[in-house]
Specification:
The chain is of the alpha+beta class. It is 59% helix and 15% strand. It has one domain. The chain contains 4 helices and 2 strands. The chain has a two-stranded antiparallel sheet with strand order 1-2. The two termini are 32 Å apart.
Length: 99
C-alpha cells in the first residue's frame, strides 16, 4: 500500500511557479503537495479498496461499523483523521447506488 500512497502523493504534487521580478518571465520555484487533493485521492482509493475487498454485503452489521473497522485495520493512528471523510464518501456512494 505504501507504493500506492507514494503514487497518489505524486499525483497530488504540483509545480510552483512565480514571476521573475526583473523581467516578468516565469520561474520554477519547486514542488508543493496539494494536501486537499492528496486527502481526496487517498479517500477515493480507500473507498474502492473497501468496496472491492472488505465490504460484507451479506452482513447484518451497519456499513459504518465495517468502515470504522477497515480504517482501524488499514491506517496508522495519525492517518485515522481520514475516517470521517471515508465514511462520508461511502455513505454518498451508497446512497447513489441505492438510487
Amino acid at each position: 500500500m505504501n507504493e500506492r500512497i507514494e503514487a497518489l502523493k505524486a499525483l497530488a504534487t504540483k509545480e510552483v511557479w512565480s514571476e521573475n521580478q526583473y523581467n516578468g518571465a516565469p520561474e520554477f520555484d519547486g514542488y508543493e503537495l496539494d494536501v486537499d487533493m492528496f486527502a481526496q485521492l487517498i479517500a477515493q482509493e480507500s473507498i474502492v479498496d473497501f468496496y472491492r475487498r472488505y465490504l460484507d454485503i451479506c452482513s447484518e452489521e451497519d456499513i459504518t461499523v465495517q468502515v470504522e473497522r477497515y480504517v482501524k485495520e488499514h491506517f496508522t493512528r495519525q492517518d485515522q483523521w481520514l475516517a470521517n471523510e471515508i465514511a462520508a464518501e461511502i455513505r454518498k456512494e451508497e446512497s447513489v447506488l441505492k438510487g
